[in-house]
Amino acid sequence: MSRDTALVSADWAESNLDAPGVVFVEVDEDTTAYDGGHIPGAIKLDWKTDLQDPVRRDFVNKQQFEALLSERGISNDDKVILYGGNNNWFAAYAYWYFKLYGHGDVRLLDGGRKKWELDARTLSKDAVSREATQYTAQDPDVSIRAFRDEVVDAIGTKNLVDVRSPDEYAGRLLAPAHLPQEQAQRAGHIPTALSVPWSKAANEDGTFKSDDDLRQIYGEAGLDDSKSTIAYCRIGERSSHTWFVLKELLGHQDVKNYDGSWTEYGSLVGVPVALGDEPGKA
Amino acid sequence: MTAVTSAGCAAPDQAAPLPASVDLEKETVITGVVSDDSGEAVAGAYVRLLDSTGEFTAEVVTSPEGQFRFFAAPGTWTLRALSRHGNGDTTVTASQGINQVSVTVAA
Question: Which of A162, A220, B5, B49 has its CA 20 to 30 A from that of B69?
Fold first, then answer.
């Protein structure tokens, strides 16, 4: 993978709004932004109600994913362009789903909703509906999804990348600083995990940094190219952003997103936890 | 009003009253308004909270009245606002409780 096959620019998007076979999809946890104005023609996906299982803590299964995309009018051969707020966190999470379920051509809009707004590009409030399709998903590709046991086994053997903010990593905060800090699970990080906040990979307008800059950032942080990598954050969306950078932009071979992330790991009984700014020992 | 949920990461409604669950004996809240150089509130500005080393910590979008709010920790923080009307930043030394800050943007 590379930037050419995984990303599109805002300029490209603006000139392909009506292109046949191109579907723009806004993905957010809070879809009021979409309702207040979206990229013309874009449909919306709600991270919580559309992409999460309503009962178990898991995301939609193959049949649910097929039903969702069929109902929203996305075909297997469409080029899907994902974008959203929060510097594309939830769009990157959705990108990871589309890859997990084997979609052919899916890309992120570089800079997401933020760059689009800061550039003062057109937003529309028009309702968008697409004709239903018969979408067929592949079996989930678990080579890009990490589960808790393999995360515990990865301590001291694989690259673990903690992409939360430095204060969350050290255990000084339990959640991002725009949310109340009342969670009950233990604070800290997985021993041996490197701290590389997701935001290191993004410019302030939300676009991704250049490949050279990205290679330098992860190299200086101590990421060993010869090893497999598991990225995690708090609930798996910021780590999708870093998964996208390592796997889709830089082309690392074996990169998994641990979507259970700290809200699972920090609540497990008996697993090791490290506190403070250093990775800690296996 | 939009409830602030602990499960999610999206920016909550910046104009909503502080949820009853927020304990100001424990929380360090940094809040204020983004305005332009003529003093008009700027809605839809992106406000970034940077720690004392300049590292990005969090980002929210201002309410229709230009308001923003962060739950941080005591210490020195920089607030950097990006908008169609230009950018600007302010430094604040925050302590426990509510810390009121204003940020002005200019092209």
Answer: A162
Dihedral pair phi/psi, residue A274, rounded to 5°: -110, 140
The CATH number of the domain covering residues in A143-265:
3.40.250.10
What's the whole-model pTM score? 0.90
Q: Which of B4, B51, B84 has the CB atom closest to A179's CB atom? A: B4
- Cα–Cα dist A225/A243, whole Å: 14
What integer best gives the mean pLDDT of chain A? 94
CB pair distance less than 8 Å for B56 and A165: yes
Number of domains in chain B: 1
Catalytic residue among A6, A69, A201, A233: A233
Residue ranges of the domains in chain A? Answer: 3-140, 143-265
A140-188 confidence digits (pLDDT tens): 999 999 999 999 999 999 999 999 988 889 998 777 766 655 565 789 9
Residue A232 burial (10 A CB sphere; 0-12, 13-18, 19+): buried
Q: Do A3-140 and A143-265 agree at the fold level?
A: yes
Residue A233 a catalytic site member: yes
Residues 6+ apart with CB under 8 A from B44: A117, B61, B62, B83, B84
Please give the CATH topology (third level) of the domain spanning A3-140: Oxidized Rhodanese; domain 1 (3.40.250)
ipTM of the complex model: 0.81
B54–chain A Cβ distance below 8 A for any pair: no
**Looking only at Cα atoms, what is the longest distance across chain A?**
54
Q: Taking a C-beta distance cutoff of 8 angstroms, is the pair B87, B105 a contact?
A: yes
